[in-house]
Design goal:
Chain A: Keywords: Cell membrane, Membrane, Transmembrane, Transmembrane helix, Transport. The complex is a heterodimer. By secondary structure, chain A is mainly alpha-helical. Chain A has helices at residues 22-55, 60-74, 78-92, 95-104, 108-135, 138-146, 151-166, 168-181, 193-204, 209-238. Chain B has one domain: MetI-like (MetI-like fold). In chain B, helix 1 (7-44) packs antiparallel against helix 6 (130-160). Chain B is globular. Classes of the chains: A mainly alpha, B mainly alpha.
């Protein structure tokens, strides 16, 4: 392989026999990657907050269910979870719903990855939220209750606003992870960035795999870096003076 | 829907072989990753600027790249470097060791930084060189402090080995996937591996929690 023909401009070439270009495939893939990751992030934040909060509640039953959710979703690899949603679930539900999922659902790979990735990340977000709530001084909850707030109001107005700010640094790393993890969605036919890359290196340009994979790798690094910047910006805006992240 | 669980015993040999690959990949990557990660952590904390910059660059790059991309990248680059084709399995060993080193580095760095500075000075005052200081004073304590974190990372690593699917390698998940397509038993196979991964990861993480409460250093 000593005479490897380097061609870094390969992504600007025409796709064989069409008037498309490879970079257009990559851009479209990047768009789906961002869509999958951001939509999944919305699910993960909402569900993760609910489950993380539930784990700190005095009600044993609710806390138990929330704990079970976290353990279940944290101990099965993401790719196996996606396969469960994509291949197993349609067979488990009533036949007509299953058939709809397999045949008529628009963008099945994309939708399934958004939900699968969202549920997967929710377990991780829940752990961060729980840690954030438990990290607050116990007096805050007691003070809220002593002021006559109900438990729900104490969470809504006292605990969660504080906990959210405290957990922003660990949430930053989850936010970066969700973009990275979205690459696994290729395995259930979601046409995101990694999928497009595999298509190009596999069927169209097997001679220039190194360049294509490296370029796509750099795009992912850039996305993760941007995600990090955005979260740091938010962190600065909402920091509580004198609190952990406040001094950084 | 008809589930045919009788297909599982028939598949157990192939699953077992795949499982063995998953385990040996996990063990090798954990061992190599911890050794490499410890060296990286020492480099990151070094007062020699270029050294610490290279180490932190290494860590940051691998930590912001999806594992599937890294697996795939090494798979296409390694043959170019060594000049001959390399199998999916061998490529996976190299990739996971190099990739996990970045994560283990951060854990070891936290461990080293958890040791009070006075101990380093005490060592130097006793005439220890940097190497001796690390070898006899800092690393043993640092290591002990982060054993639970290292084990937790190893459980994550065990789950991540399922991503060698991208190379078509036959790990536990890969074996299940191949049998699933051969025998047309998708449901049974996927449910089975999910249960296997869950049981192993769940009980290991329980064990780590237990261990954590046992070995936590009393200060």
């Amino acid at each position: 392989m000593s005479q490897y023909q380097w061609d870094w401009l390969v992504i600007f070439e025409n796709v064989t026999d069409t008037d498309e270009f490879y970079y257009q495939w990559l851009i479209s893939g990047l768009g789906w990657t961002l869509l999958i990751a951001l939509s999944a992030w919305v699910i993960a934040l909402i569900l993760g907050t609910i489950i993380g909060t539930a784990r700190t509640l005095p009600n044993k039953f609710v806390a138990g269910i929330a704990t079970a959710y976290v353990e279940l979703f944290r101990n099965i690899p993401l790719i196996v979870q996606l396969f469960m949603w994509f291949f197993v679930l349609p067979e488990m539900v009533p036949t007509n719903i299953g058939n709809w999922m397999k045949q008529d659902m628009p963008h099945p790979g994309i939708i399934t990855s958004i939900i699968g990735l969202g549920l997967f990340t929710a377990a991780r977000v829940a752990e961060q939220i729980r840690t954030g709530i438990l990290a607050l001084p116990r007096g805050q909850k007691n003070a809220g209750l002593a002021l006559g707030l109900t438990l729900a109001q104490t969470y809504r107005h006292v605990l969660l606003p504080m906990a959210f700010r405290v957990v922003i640094p660990p949430l930053t790393s989850e936010f970066m992870s969700i973009f990275k993890n979205s690459a696994v969605a290729y395995s259930i036919t979601a046409t995101e960035l990694f999928f497009q890359m595999k298509q190009i290196t596999g069927d169209y340009k097997p001679a220039n795999q190194i360049e294509v994979v490296t370029i796509v790798g750099l795009i992912y690094i850039l996305v993760a870096f941007s995600a990090n910047r955005i979260m740091t910006f938010i962190e600065r805006r909402v920091q509580v003076p004198g609190y952990i992240s406040g001094g950084k | 829907m008809q589930l045919d669980w009788s297909s599982i015993p028939r598949a157990s040999n192939a699953l077992w072989e795949g499982f063995q690959f998953s385990i040996s990949l996990t063990a090798f990557a954990a061992l190599a990753g911890i050794i490499l990660g410890t060296l990286l952590a020492m480099a990151r904390l070094s007062s020699i600027k270029p050294l610490s910059m290279i180490a932190s660059g290494y860590v940051n790059i691998f930590r912001s790249t999806p594992l599937v991309i890294v697996i795939y990248w090494f798979y296409v680059v390694l043959p170019f470097i060594i000049g001959r084709p390399i199998g999916a399995e061998h490529s996976a060993y190299v990739t996971f060791a190099i990739f996990e080193a970045a994560y283990f580095c951060e854990i070891m760095r936290a461990g080293i930084q958890s040791i009070p500075k006075g101990q380093v000075y005490a060592g130097s005052a006793l005439g220890f060189t940097y190497g001796q200081n690390m070898r006899y004073i800092i690393l043993p304590q640092a290591f002990r402090n982060v054993v639970p974190l290292l084990l937790t990372q190893t459980i994550i690593l065990f789950q991540d080995t399922s991503l060698v699917y991208v190379l078509g390698a036959t790990d536990l998940f890969g074996a299940a996937d191949k049998i699933a397509h051969r025998d047309n038993t998708l449901l049974e196979m996927y449910v089975t591996v999910a249960v296997i991964y869950f049981v192993i990861s769940f009980f290991l993480s329980r064990l780590v929690k237990h261990l954590h409460s046992k070995i936590a250093i009393i200060r």
